[in-house]
Amino acid sequence: MPYVPIEWLREHVDVPAGLSAEQLAADLVRVGLEEERIVPPAVTGPLVVGKVLTREAKEQTNGKVINYCRVDVGPEHNDAPGTGKEPSELPSRGIVCGAHNFDVGDSVVVCLPGAVLPGDFRIAARKTYGHVSDGMICSARELGIGEDHSGIIVLEQWLAEHGHDGEEPPAPGTDAIGILGLGEEVLEINVTPDRGYCFSMRGVAREYSHSTGTRFTDPADATDTGLYPNGLAPAGDGGFDVVVPEDPRPIHGRPGCDRYVARLVRGIDPSAPSPTWMQDRLTAAGMRPISLAVDVTNYVMLDLGQPLHAFDAGKLAAPIVVRRAQEGERLTFLDDVTRTLDPEDLVISDSPEGEGSRALVLAGVFGGALSEVDVDTRDVLIEAAHFDPVSVARSSRRHKLPTESSKRNERGVDTELAPIAAQRAVDLLVEYGGGTAEPVATDVNRTRPPEPIIMRPDAAERLTGVAYGIDRVTELLTTIGCTVERSGSAEDGTQLLTVTPPTWRPDLTGPCPSGRGDRPPRRLRRHPGHRAHGPRRNGAERRPEGPPRRRARPGRRRTHPGPVLPLHR
Fold first, then answer.
1. What is the Cα 12 distance to its own chain's centre?
2. Residue 547: what pLDDT?
3. Phi then psi for 544, rounded to 5 degrees?
4. Which of 26, 31, 196, 444 is most exposed, with the fewest beta carbons within 10 Å of its own?
5. How far is CA 170 from the centre of its chain?
């Protein structure tokens, strides 16, 4: 389930200083996003800034050159001159280090005895290479904040790489956990199947805004010149050739793909690394940074909620064709496993031996090895598409591939998001990879706008007993993104409303049923005006009167009762 790093959330919504993961969980549960768990900090115990005072390099009998260093770790942690496990005339600690990318005078990150690193690696003083190492000078990989293990963190360089160029490192002994962003607890939330838009920071930030009333800034607003300096590329002739033929085997009458956006970026530097801030956010969200092109697609997916795929354009033969798989067709995936496809599977193919002759990707689920971005890739084609959720869900389960992409696609993605997410990815590739974006986008768009819903404004009152009133109902529906218009009257004279859900809420398909003693759905019951609520002594909400609650079976999770128009904020 999604992780919610508070620092990342703060970019999209006003978050109070010092907000804890526990308080964030309390705020989000009010809008139906339940806590799965709170992930503790990656590092605990004394992790401090140190300054290298001396460095003595000595070749060992095994051929390694090992450094014995005296490191100033601050008055609170230093051994006084002439004291300690290996006395010195300098107030410091003695530490053995095998890295060679630092020198005397550099500021470093030191784990002192008692600290615990990722993987439950506990630091203690120990004798090694003829000295007592009373702590450890750390690399990024040892702290779980990167993959670099070629050398230790030199803070002067680290600060410059993280947007603090020219800033002096803190004094020895300063707590380094906050400096490195290691002290933040991360909330993991449980998202019910009907609320796929909350598999993104955009969706969670919007819900946090509804819960707390704080200001939300939409990261998918293409008019924001800070995020989209060039706006959206126009769609038309001149983009990469894409064919989306009529689906011969639609599921429940719905075609497998009703929107396909393709953007081409040429001349990317294959060696260009992902920016450190992006790697940090991916790591906090539970993903491993891989390469610039892959990290950009993952970052945009996590931020906006639109799954993307990056092709090595040099390996493609136009046109791209979206089609159902052929009987017995096989595809080798990125995990190097070759699987036999089902005729119901939707695939992305290219055309080396005729239109759509070669399958490349299991659409919306998992990429193939043939068009994989690698260390030599210079030209990248970005795919952003809208796939039928049922088609994706069936393929994911059939092949046992529950990927981050499939989790979002099978819950329903915003139909208007594809060109915006593709543009965001293109802009990041150009900024950090030095590429050049093709000026025209390909956008095969056959999506339909959400169907308007006619409803009585007293529908919620009939269900809950709370007299919201037409103005309050209109306000609440507008708050969650619906367009609301007054549209005539029912037979009893009650004013009716025409409600058009936003494109990011495919779960809003009609008013909640109110017959046969239906209980109000969880999100509706959380509205503070619902009179069935009342505080328990432990602060929990009181359950409305009704039939006894059935417990979920062990290992199974109770799901939301169904799609409704929520009146909870």
1. 13
2. 38
3. -60, 155
4. 26
5. 31
Does residue 457 contact residue 451 with C-beta atoms inside 8 Å? no
Tokens of 412: 């329903």
- Distance, in Å, from the CA atom of 145 to the CA atom of 152, rounded to the nearest integer, reads 12
Contacts of 200 (CB under 8 A, 6+ apart): 2, 301, 302, 303, 304, 305, 408
Q: Are strands 495-500 and 65-72 parallel, antiparallel or unpaired?
A: unpaired
* Cβ contacts of 82 within 8 Å, gap of 6 or more: 88, 89
State the amino acid at position 541 in one-letter form. E
pLDDT < 70 positions in the chain: 149, 513-569
Question: For residues 495 and 485, is the Cβ–Cβ distance under 8 A?
Answer: no
Question: Residue 92 gets which letter from DSSP?
Answer: B
Alpha carbons within 13 A on the beta-carbon side of 531: 9
Say if residues 344 and 391 touch (Cβ distance below 8 Å): yes
Q: What is the pLDDT of residue 513?
A: 66
DSSP letter (8 states) at residue 23? H
pLDDT value at residue 527 = 52
What CA–CA distance (Å, rounded) separates 439 from 234? 8
| Global pTM value | 0.80
Nearest to 165 by CA among 173, 174, 175, 155: 155
Question: Rounded to an integer, what distance in angstroms lies between the CA atom of residue 111 and that of residue 117?
Answer: 9
Coil, helix or strand at residue 330: strand
- Take residue 57 and report the two structure tokens written for it: 């390099």
Structure-token pair, residue 256: 């497998």
CA distances in angstroms from 149 to 138, 292, 510, listed in the order given: 9, 19, 55
Q: Note the Cα 181 to chain centre separation in Å.
A: 17
Strand stretches in 73-161, DSSP E: 93-97, 107-111, 116-117, 121-122, 126-128, 131-133, 136-137
Residues 6+ apart with CB under 8 A from 25: 35, 38, 187, 189
Rounded to the nearest angstrom, the gap between the alpha carbon of residue 93 and the centroid of all alpha carbons in its chain is 41
DSSP for residue 403 = -
Please state, in angstroms and rounded to a whole number, the distance separating the CA atoms of residues 325 and 194: 28
Strands 483-489 and 65-72, sheet pairing: unpaired
Which helix (H) or strand (E) segment holds residue 393: the answer is helix 389-398
Which residues have C-beta within 8 Å of that of residue 53, sequence separation ≥ 6? 69, 70, 71, 72, 90, 92, 104
Is there a contact between 208 and 28 (Cβ–Cβ < 8 Å)?
Answer: yes
- CA distance linking residue 434 with residue 175, whole number of Å: 37
